[in-house]
Hints:
single chain
Amino acid sequence: MSGSAIVMMLVGIIVIWGGLAASIWHAVKASKQK
């Protein structure tokens, strides 16, 4: 794999896991307010 392909793979992983973590954090924060 070329360097650019590895960078794009890492960016994709960060976006996917970052979005997942943000959605979980938002759900926990919303549930604590009730």
